[in-house]
Design goal:
Elements: E1 4-8, E2 11-14, E3 18-22, H1 27-39, E4 42-45, E5 53-57, E6 62-65, H2 69-77
Parallel strand pairs: 4-6
Antiparallel strand pairs: 1-2, 3-5, 5-6
């Protein structure tokens, strides 16, 4: 059974589908977000708040979250 990770505001992702959880601050990540938006693979789960983490999935989707990457990583390791 897949473990689900809470990424904020009642949204969850399957932990076995996550490739990485990164900060959105660098220019290459901002470019990646824009390219993904143009291709239609961007999922914005920030509910209008500031993007604090970018979750890269194995399905080419990118998920934006308002939760810090460290917090999501801790939730990944919880049992």
């Amino acid at each position: 059974m897949d473990k689900l990770i809470n990424i904020g505001f009642g949204n969850v992702v399957a932990s076995n589908r996550v490739i990485s959880i990164i900060s959105p601050e660098s220019a290459p990540i901002k470019r990646l977000i824009q390219e993904t938006r143009e291709k239609g693979y961007l999922i914005d789960a920030t509910y209008g708040r500031k993007t604090r983490s970018v979750i890269v999935m194995d399905s080419k989707h990118i998920i934006l979250s308002a939760i810090q990457p460290e917090t999501i990583a801790l939730r990944t390791n919880e049992k």
